[in-house]
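Hi V.,

Quick status before I head out on leave. The structure for the redesign project is tokenized and pasted below; the design run finished overnight.
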């Protein structure tokens, strides 16, 4: 459903939020190991997300990535839009460019409802909520 870049970005932001809630900062090596991603790839993703204010970063010996209150309130939909664009929320289920209300594909009507449910779920899903669920051991990022 998401690109690999988007999957890693979401997982990394949740991981960073959980690990930095006590004020500490998390380094690339720890993030990479914590979400099972290639170090170089996640570094590139986080550098981009930091420039776009999805995550905060600090350089130096006590540097690393961390989340502020505004970052914790971001929706997963915001992250998806930034990385994968709006296609998940508006695209055709079969990938047809011409699909529309006036010219629907075979699954258009049913997929429209699924797309809206996914959009609503991701809009309502905040990074902070995922951190709380991880802390309660209701969910996991890596086994």
């Amino acid at each position: 459903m998401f690109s690999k870049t988007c999957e890693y970005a979401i997982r990394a932001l949740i991981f960073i939020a959980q690990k930095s809630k006590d004020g500490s900062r998390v380094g690339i090596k720890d993030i990479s190991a914590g979400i099972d991603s290639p170090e170089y790839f996640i570094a590139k993703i986080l550098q981009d997300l930091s420039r776009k204010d999805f995550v905060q970063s600090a350089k130096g010996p006590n540097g690393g990535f961390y989340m502020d209150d505004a970052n914790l309130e971001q929706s997963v939909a915001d992250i998806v839009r930034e990385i994968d664009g709006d296609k998940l929320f508006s695209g055709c289920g079969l990938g047809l460019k011409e699909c529309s209300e006036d010219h629907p594909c075979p699954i258009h009507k049913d997929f429209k409802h699924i797309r809206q449910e996914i959009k609503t779920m991701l809009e309502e899903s905040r990074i902070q909520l995922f951190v709380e669920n991880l802390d309660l051991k209701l969910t996991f990022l890596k086994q």
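Above is the designed sequence. Residues 75-125 form one domain.

G. will cover questions while I'm gone.

Best,
W.
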